Amino acid sequence: MKDRIKELKEKFSAQLGTVYDQKSLEELRLAFLSKKGHVSALMSELAKLPGDQKKEAGALINSFKQEISAHFDEKMEQIRKAEEERLINSAESYDESLPEERARGSYHPITLVQRELEDIFGSMGFDVEDYSEIVDDYHCFEALNIPPYHPARDMQDTYYLSTPNQLLKSHTSAAQNSIMHKYGPLLKEKGRPIRAVFPGRCFRNEDIDACHENTFFQMEGIMIDKNISISNLIYFMKTMLSEVFERDVTVRLRPGFFPFVEPGFELDIQCLICGGKGCSSCKDSGWLELCPCGMIHPNVLKYGGINSEEDPYEYTGFAFGLGLTRLAMMKYGVKDIRTFNEGDLNALSQFVSK
Ligand code: PHE
């Protein structure tokens, strides 16, 4: 009996070494421990033994049985762990304890308005340009006909970096000069008009309240070609605003001063809530101030490399600076500008694109 068991033990450990999954382990278990298995066969042999050898042989068989059962359990645990690991690492892994539906993010209302405007201007042939938030004094002011110590700088006090001559841009107009240099050659060599919009985050040193923020968004636009006039400006503004508000809007121009446009205007739209009769939203005036604009100043066109000293009016153009934050407030009826920057997801997740 001893030899039989020794032989079976060797057979068992040799076969166990080749087992890698639950199925083959189960086959091995059946081969040894089922009714027709090796251990049962030993028991039948035991029955045939003479009485005095039975006790010892029975004990041997029992301990053999316990030993291989322990091996089975150990192997089973190893296989289970390996399987779990494989699932975690494989592409099809999943965690059944995760909630079915995960919370989805939503677009910021300013992003929604910005994209809508990009689409509208894109359909009118405008390029969409991106520009840095850190600029130098030249691009933010001097190239826009605002020399040092000019009083117009007071309205645009911003944040200066400790690196010399670097500041956070106070308006998207800061990109005008670079865009003129980028597209100017195409205009002059190929006659392709410059049509570009450039949205961006702007910064100003403001006391914050429901209507003022130190961080806000604008979308600037310029169009430059031969014979561009104020009527082109009015046409583009009216078309764009009618699309944004999904109805015909009435606009008017009032004179406004900005050193980089001449003449310069404030563009108002007729109040959409009262239709111009006067209400609390338009402070009883019937009009809402929306978009400063004007014809680009000859100096700015010169600094941008568009016109020469000899012919300062060869090309003309218009520029507008749409307050994206303000537009989003009007479109969605947001009363407090701080809503946009506070990061309160309850408020911000309510906005959806049309
Ligand atoms: N950059 C000006 C501002 O932020 C707005 C503006 C843009 C005015 C273009 C005229 C033309 O105040």
Written account of the structure:
By secondary structure, this protein is an alpha+beta fold. It has twelve helices and nine strands. The protein has two domains: 2-90; 109-348, BirA Bifunctional Protein, domain 2, CATH 3.30.930. The strands form two sheets. The protein has a seven-stranded mixed beta sheet with strand order 1-4-5-9-8-7-6, sandwiched between helices. It has a two-stranded antiparallel ribbon with strand order 2-3. A hairpin with a 5-residue loop joins strand 6 (251-255) and strand 7 (261-270). Bound molecules: phenylalanine (PHE).
Supply the key terms.
two-stranded antiparallel sheet, 354 residues, elongated, single chain, BirA Bifunctional Protein, domain 2, 2 domains, 42% helix, seven-stranded mixed β-sheet, alpha+beta, 9 strands, binds phenylalanine
Domain count: the total is 2
Report the top-level CATH class of the largest domain.
Alpha Beta
User: What is the N-to-C order of secondary-structure elements (H for helix, E for strand)?
Assistant: HHHHHEEHEHEEHEEEHEHHH
The radius of gyration over CA amounts to 40 Å
User: In CATH, what is the homologous superfamily of the largest domain?
Assistant: Bira Bifunctional Protein, Domain 2
How is the largest sheet built, in terms of strand order?
Answer: 1-4-5-9-8-7-6
Please name the CATH topology of the largest domain: BirA Bifunctional Protein, domain 2
| Category from helices, strands and their pairing | alpha+beta
Q: Which ranges are low-confidence, i.e. pLDDT below 50, for 5 or more consecutive residues?
A: none
Hetero groups: phenylalanine
